[in-house]
Design a protein that fits this description.
Oligomer: single chain
GO molecular function: RNA-DNA hybrid ribonuclease activity
Structural class: alpha+beta
CATH superfamily: HIV Type 1 Reverse Transcriptase, subunit A, domain 1
Protein name: ribonuclease H
Largest sheet: 3 strands, antiparallel
Helix content: 25-40%
Shape: elongated
Number of helices: 5
Number of strands: 8
Number of domains: 1
Family: Belongs to the beta type-B retroviral polymerase family. HERV class-II K(HML-2) pol subfamily.
Order of helices and strands: HEEEHHEEEHEEH
Organism: Hirundo rustica rustica
Strand content: 15-25%
EC number: 3.1.26.4
Distance between the termini: 28 Å
Radius of gyration: 18 Å
CATH topology: HIV Type 1 Reverse Transcriptase, Chain A, domain 1
CATH architecture: Roll
């Protein structure tokens, strides 16, 4: 698991005065996911003014569309596509089998990762010619009255 993340450039070996506990979690697919307990870091991290949309508001807005077809686009490993600033990486250190590592990409478990990810995807979609859609972090929902209409909207977003 760590070797794969390291070969992908998502994590790298580090020497840091910080260290958060980890534990691997088995996914339903049988693969393993690395979970880092960032509660201590999250407690001392200043708040951001930006926010992820409220799920209930998104649900109400989606219900008001009254479309026949819906599709969700899930951006795979979205956090890992966002570089973590070099000057912050030491704070995200963890140890695996006696070796300390840190994230080079936005880690899961840090309280601002969803907000940062949501904002970057939202900005990207606003720059393009994206059709009407709803977004929640790395999930994008499109709708229409036919499967073809939904497929076309999905293609424009991708």
């Amino acid at each position: 698991m760590i070797c794969k993340l390291e070969s992908q450039g998502v994590v790298s070996k580090a020497h840091s005065p910080f260290n958060s506990p980890i534990w691997p979690v088995s996914k339903s697919s049988g693969e393993w996911s690395l979970t880092v307990d960032y509660r201590a870091l999250n407690e001392v991290t200043p708040p951001l003014s930006a926010a992820v949309p409220d799920m209930l508001e998104l649900q109400n807005e989606l219900e008001s569309k009254a479309a026949k077809w819906y599709a969700t686009i899930d951006i795979a490993n979205a956090f890992f596509s966002i570089p973590l600033a070099a000057e912050c990486r030491a704070q995200f250190a963890f140890t695996w089998k006696g070796v300390q590592y840190t994230w080079n990409r936005l880690p899961q478990g840090w309280k601002h990762s969803p907000t940062i990810c949501h904002g970057l995807i939202q900005t990207t979609l606003e720059k393009g010619e994206a059709p009407e859609h709803l977004q929640y972090i790395d999930d994008i929902i499109v709708w229409g009255n036919t499967a073809g209409e939904v497929f076309e909207k999905g293609e424009k977003i991708i």
